[in-house]
């Protein structure tokens, strides 16, 4: 008899749920979203254009109009590599007009809707006649101090800083003043002094890219930090281990990527470390490994965020011939697809609203810099009536190839009765960019993106 009563009670409870009479249990409904294969602009990821700013041509400056136009081009450019050559200042201070141009270019990026990978170096020619290939450690230190205020002022539009300064092209190899062929730990100390100087002056929420995994591994070991890749628990902390990332400027060019890797252990290190640190760069030569199929595999393994759009053209053209180019453009960095949202069915003013999201990241990498997450309610009768609810969720852990599930909630304002559009907003956390839609993340879904605001439309609700 007890069993029959229990079964009857369960049936009654299920019937109540199905009819909406669930007592204090909030009712939920689900919305399914359609994925798009459109190639579109998104901040802090994708193809980049490299621009050179030399000491011999101060008048060459970035233009905000050109940057804005490139966002609308087929390449959907939101990133630049600005290479600054201090060739004429190897033994002198950087003049103010050069620094003014740096300031101008950063402002142009912000106005045009893009961010930058920065690199400073002295020479772009590795011939004997071009020596010295770089400045002395003393002059490098002075130059870093001169550039520091601009790195701090414009950190909002810096994607990352490549370590630079040392060697031809700033790649830490052909060097006149930093031990060209270092072997002992002591040989590396001048390099670490430059690196630690950069870590001090660059805001701690920005990463510094080293040319090879060996540099990071050796630095960590010499500073007593081991040689293990970054873990999720260590990620995005204001530590050297979390802030040192990489750039590979000979991607799939040989079995070692032209010396990028000393051993297979280096590859394994970068595969793991780049889950939480930035990776980007360029190709440099065709070989048996540079075809499209292998390139796609390696871009995913090493979690690539950005790629030089124009170099090496032979390699990039082969990817087009292999039919993978569009997929490379889509998948560089993050690409977030919302599959389903389950939300409070009958939201009420002054009560809790909750939404659970099922999402996929079909890109090569997670978002690498900090990102805000907000639920936004906008009245359909009065667009100026808007309620924004910040959330405690970190998109930097929305990893590729993993099911992403998270719940957002808020207590709706008591005055909210009416019909509202509900949005997911993923803005840049810097106040200077937060309300600029060019710097908000767009979901890879049909009919969700609102270009004027940078919001992603989730649904429309009637708040009672």
List keywords for this structure.
464 residues, alpha/beta, Immunoglobulin-like, TIM Barrel, 2 domains, 8-stranded parallel β-barrel, 5-stranded antiparallel β-sheet, 11 helices, 17 strands, 27% helix, disordered N terminus
The count of β-strands is: 17
Q: What best-fitting shape do the alpha-carbon axes yield?
A: globular
Uncertain spans, ≥5 residues at pLDDT below 50?
1-23
CATH class division of the largest domain? Alpha Beta
Fill in the CATH topology of the largest domain.
Answer: TIM Barrel
Helix content: 25-40%
The largest beta-sheet arranges its strands as: 2-3-4-5-6-7-8-9
What is the averaged pLDDT score?
A: 94
Kindly give the count of domains: 2
Description:
The chain is of the alpha/beta class. It folds into two domains: 25-38 and 335-463, Immunoglobulin-like; 46-331, TIM Barrel, CATH 3.20.20.80. Helix content is 27%, strand content 24%. It is built from eleven helices and 17 strands. The strands form three sheets. An eight-stranded parallel beta barrel has the order 2-3-4-5-6-7-8-9, surrounded by four helices. It has a five-stranded antiparallel β-sheet with strand order 13-12-15-17-16, with no helix packed on it. A four-stranded antiparallel β-sheet has the order 1-10-11-14, with no helix packed on it.
């Amino acid at each position: 008899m007890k069993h029959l009563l229990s079964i009857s009670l369960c049936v009654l409870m299920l019937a109540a749920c199905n009819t909406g009479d669930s007592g204090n249990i909030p009712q939920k409904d689900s919305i399914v979203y359609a994925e798009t294969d459109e190639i579109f602009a998104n901040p802090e990821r994708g193809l980049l254009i490299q621009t050179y700013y030399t000491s011999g041509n101060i008048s060459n400056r970035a233009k905000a109009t050109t940057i804005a136009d490139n966002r609308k081009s087929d390449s959907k450019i939101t990133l630049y590599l600005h290479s600054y050559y201090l060739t004429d200042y190897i033994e002198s201070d950087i003049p103010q007009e050069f620094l003014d141009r740096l300031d101008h270019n950063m402002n142009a990026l912000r106005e045009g809707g893009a961010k930058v990978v920065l690199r400073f170096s002295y020479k772009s020619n590795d011939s004997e006649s071009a020596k010295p290939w770089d400045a002395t450690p003393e002059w490098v230190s002075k130059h870093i101090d001169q550039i520091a205020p601009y790195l701090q002022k414009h950190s909002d539009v810096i994607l990352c800083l490549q370590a630079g300064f040392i060697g031809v092209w700033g790649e830490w190899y052909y060097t006149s003043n930093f031990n060209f062929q270092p072997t002992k730990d002591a040989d590396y100390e001048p390099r670490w002094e430059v690196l630690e100087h950069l870590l001090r002056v660059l805001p701690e929420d920005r990463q510094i890219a080293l040319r090879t995994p060996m540099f990071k591994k050796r630095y960590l070991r010499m500073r007593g930090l081991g040689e293990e890749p970054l873990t999720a628990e260590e990620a995005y902390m204001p530590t050297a281990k979390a802030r040192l990332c990489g750039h590979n400027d000979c991607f799939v060019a040989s079995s070692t990527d032209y010396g990028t890797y000393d051993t297979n252990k280096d590859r394994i290190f970068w595969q793991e470390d780049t889950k939480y640190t930035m990776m980007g760069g360029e190709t440099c030569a065709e070989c048996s490994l540079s075809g499209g199929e292998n390139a796609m595999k390696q871009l995913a393994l090493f979690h690539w965020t950005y790629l030089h759009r124009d170099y090496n053209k032979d390699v990039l053209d082969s990817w087009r011939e292999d039919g993978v180019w569009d997929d490379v453009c889509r998948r560089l960095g993050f690409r977030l697809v919302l599959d389903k949202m389950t939300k409070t069915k009958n939201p009420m003013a002054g009560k809790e609203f909750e939404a659970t999201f099922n999402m996929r990241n079909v890109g090569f990498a997670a978002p690498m810099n900090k990102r805000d997450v907000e639920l936004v309610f906008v009245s359909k009768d009065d667009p100026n009536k808007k309620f924004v609810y910040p959330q405690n969720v970190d998109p930097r852990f929305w990893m590729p190839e993993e099911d992403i599930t998270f719940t957002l909630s808020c207590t709706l304002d008591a005055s909210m009765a009416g019909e509202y559009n509900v949005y997911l907003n993923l803005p840049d956390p810097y106040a200077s960019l937060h309300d600029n839609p060019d710097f908000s993340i767009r979901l890879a879904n049909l009919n969700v993106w609102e270009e004027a605001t940078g919001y992603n439309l989730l649904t429309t609700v009637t708040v009672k």
